[in-house]
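Justification of computing resources. Each target in the renewal requires a structure prediction run like the one illustrated here; the chain below, 328 residues long, is used simply to show the kind of job we budget for.
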Amino acid sequence: MKLKHHTVSALIATALVSLAATQAAARDFRSADVHAKEYPTNLAVKYMGEQLSKATGGKDKIKVYGDSALGSEKDTVEQVKIGALDMVRVSTAAFHGIVPESMIPSLPFLFRDLDHFRATMYGPQGDKILAAFDRAGFVGLCLYESGARSMYAKRPIRSIADMKGLKVRVQQSDLWVSLINATGASPTPMPFAEVYTGLKTGLLDAAENNIPSYEEAKHFESAPIFSETMHVMSPEVLVFSKKIWETLSSEEQASIRKAAKESVPYYVKLWDAKEKDAKAAVLKSGAKIIPTSEIDKASFVAAEKPVWDKFTSTPELKSLVQDIVNTK
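Resulting structure tokens:
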């Protein structure tokens, strides 16, 4: 059967409109990070993008911008809030001032060990923290572990007494300022990108972070003694702009959430390898590691107890802390 000319034209026009609509709906979501392109957080979000692309038949993709290319953590969080940027991976410390629940995993000496962290932060307590981002204009997608944070300086730090008077870089958060104040040291809030110069010029005496960040940023050059205080296991968080989220279909939202969750076990493998490699690299470079067995943890724990009381000021936050502590 022959189709009339105007029928064929109509079909072609409909097909073109449909194709244009499909192409218009295709999205390249942009995700920001302060770490280098090959850092596990960036590789995990890239993997998430691959999973998302598979789930949407290649329609939705994620472009990852590392190396602080789109700004500091503070800058990129603000861009995501107003919808100028789709996603950002930052330390949970970047949200301490606006999402009270994000402070809970940064409480000093909250987690007994890595297994305890994983059971809670990749479990119901982590989901509760992620859900809290919604009220602040963000969609919490997933948490990534970030190892244990420890102190590093020109000299060993074996007990709370060794902290007295040190100028210590902290993340830009009231909780971190209080945490360092409690040790008798002097907290100096500063973006991560400025710490190398701060240590080199003597503006800082010490800093604290996980060992991959210590190695990646070459902080060992000016602070060659890494003391495994393991005072905090605060996670990283990946968030999506709520403004942009609300323009997506429920199917797209579900695909993004699923891809984010799938990136977590992938990330954990990368992180485990990264920690091992970073430790070997800093030792090879001449840095010294004071093992956690040589740290007087009790002196730190006693000093930090008031920080728990100060930052768990509501029944809901107290309940969340208790849930984490009670988890076996």
